[in-house]
Amino acid sequence: MAITPGRIISSLRVLGAMARVTATTLVDAARDHLERSAVDERARWFGRRVVEVLDVELTATGVDRVPAGRAYVYMSNHQSHLDIPMLYATLPSPTIRMLAKKELFEIPVWGRALRAAEYIRVDRSNHAAAMKSIEHAAGLVRDGVSIYLAPEGTRSRDGSIGKLKKGGFHLALETGTPIVPVAISGTIDILPRGSKIMQTGVPVRVTIGAPIPVEGRDVEGLMTEVRDFLVKNVKTATSATT
Fold first, then answer.
1. What secondary structure letter does DSSP report for 159?
2. CATH number of the domain that 130 lies in?
3. How far apart are CA 206 and CA 226, in angstroms?
4. Distance (Å, whole) CA 169 – CA 165
5. How many domains, in total, are found in the chain?
């Protein structure tokens, strides 16, 4: 896809929105006045802003399947860095914090804002550190905060669903928190892995499944159920837009 001035400007505008959210979060944190509700509002605003700037044709189904009033562990496939704003623009829970790879926390300024806003750093190369991250996430869940993670652990290169990792499933089981599977299609066409310039006017579909109770379940069974949902709905969503 050709890199045009319009695409470059749109990409810069997305980065500008990210900078705005980061700056206000750091200012509030420095004043010891960073409220969870303010982070929620900014995350939602960022999601909507990305949809607007990139002229995303966003369709979300299944929002009504998720009852209000409790925390969930959301799990989706991972196509692009643009998955995150699309999810903040569509997922129904008012407060959601995300598990993110340690490299994002090492970005100057941005990493400080992520920590201040209660996002969860995951170091998959260090088992002890990874377990501490799960404990951190469990504490947030018990405090009513929903958690999002991508159990594939890395972005897909071709949109297919990779092998799922177990950490998030242990988190759901240990806290007794239902898992909400979420299938995303289309973000890979906006910003595929390895690209820095975003495409505009791309259809994106988010399919939200019904919460999966975890009581009496095991990790392997939950992994199979979530993966089956992702494979089925990513394929369906992809075929619907081609």
1. S
2. 3.40.1130
3. 15
4. 8
5. 1
